[in-house]
Specification:
Number of domains: 2
Distance between the termini: 35 Å
CATH superfamily of the largest domain: YVTN repeat-like/Quinoprotein amine dehydrogenase
CATH class of the largest domain: Mainly Beta
Largest sheet: 5 strands, mixed
Structural class: mainly beta
Strand order of the largest sheet: 1-27-28-29-30
Length: about 450
Amino acid sequence: MTLTALFQTAGPWRRLCDSVRVCPAFTSLLLAVFFSAGATTRAQDAGEWRQWRGPSGDNHASKDWDLPLKWNLKTGQNILWKAKIAGRGHSTPIFVGKWIFLTTMDPVARVQAVLRIDRQTGRVVNQWAVHRDVGDIPMHRNNSGASPSLASDGEMLYACFYSRDAINVTALSMEGSKIWQRQVCDFYPSQFQFGYGASPIIEGDLLIVAAEYDGENSGLYALDLKTGKPIWKAERPINLNFASPIVATVAGERLLLLAGAGTIDAHDPRTGARRWSVPTATDAICGTIVWDDRRLMISGGNPGSGTWCIQAAGNRKELWSNTVMCYEQSLLAIKEFVFGVADNGVAYCWRTRDGTEMWKERLFSGGISASPLLVGAELIVASEKGEVFTLAANPARFELLSTNQTGDSIFASPVAVNDCLYVRTGVMENGVRQEYLVAISSRR
């Protein structure tokens, strides 16, 4: 257990020290360490979701959250609130304290912004313009000018946007004051102008940003959280890639993981140095690597389509692969098994040690961009047509628990915190797509 986990709350440690009659000096030392750590980076509680893929980086929500199986956006059944979102974005919301933070872009005014939303009421309290007059941003029709999710260390927000042929990061206070802003690198893809979508990741006192494209600045970058000062750069191949990096502890080793350019790579998150590389996968990856103790899995689709699994410890090599393509969406791993929903709407479960297909079943017809979410023993899957499916996360058999139409189009991945499921959806109103953030819960 880490020190952060040990010292999340002072109260239990006071009671523990009293119960075992620890000496007063040691008790004071414990509390001093706790409050000292809290002064720099506030401990993340169970009701927070501060960055892409959540507190543990695996898109697993708390096992304790109890979500309804049925809801109705039109009648209001189990809809706690819905917040009208100006502009468009495919980023997921993050949750810090009593606030929800979300990025968006107004395609008419050409403004990229951060929204602050009250968690209890859904009221959009603030809209802070980060970049104005951003001009045209060439992108794929399934992308947006606000696709990377925000990240937060509990004290500041970090917004990453693609504009003016560059990747830019802005640090904001919780009240919207600009602390620093830095251009990470030039970014002007030539072969495929599909835009940008990699979310930044916080690891310790670093903000890690992937900026991979067919240009000489392609790389992984780390910035100091407090100042924005560049700390390291890891060179990446001159190759257009869209994957978000993730940091995970796999086989006892803390690794920065990224797939693309025909490899699955592991870096030292403190220095950026490449630890190892396995030549598998394909050139362009959109999803984030998932893991199962000693194995890593990824799926992608350009130019080769497939799902790949490698051994991440010992003799690092490809264990298995298949031709199933989950291109924009990530996989979802649990112990010994991995779930995926392919671009054609078919859901799969594979055993991670050998790739055995446990089951497959068609969920829908059409596209998918959102990544599956695990909530307790249930999987939440959202399609581009606005359908939200709840499945049993059961490797033994496919079990569809519910289907709920939630707007007309979903591209952002759902998030669950505090017995609420949050879905960013688009609703056609008078022939125009209007975005909403919807809070779904049986509690009132």
